[in-house]
Amino acid sequence: MLELRPPGVDKGSALTGLVRERSAGSVLFCGDDLGDLPAFAAVRELRAQGVPGCVVASASAESPRVADAADLTVPGPDGIVALLTALAAALGVSP
Description:
By secondary structure, the protein is an alpha/beta fold. It has a domain at about 25-90. The chain has 4 helices and 3 strands, in the order αβαβαβα. It has helices at about 10-20, 35-50, 65-70, 75-90, and strands spanning about 25-30, 55-60, 70-75. Strands 1-2-3 form a 3-stranded parallel sheet. Helix 1 packs across helix 2. It is globular.
């Protein structure tokens, strides 16, 4: 896998920019690899600034650090789908 990004930009800065651009009232970020850790940190920083947020790890034996840094861990990509489906149902949004 090859991830391309401009110098000085990572998933954390991109997420923070998006939250500010959209004036988001809350944020949920799901990740599964080490490249997602800057976004996890951004969610924690946003929470410190009063923006509610949650970090979810898609569990993987290859990246235990990701699960350790998350608020919630689900069993792989299917777990992310199940979580998002349950959230949509709780909000009354049909998939």
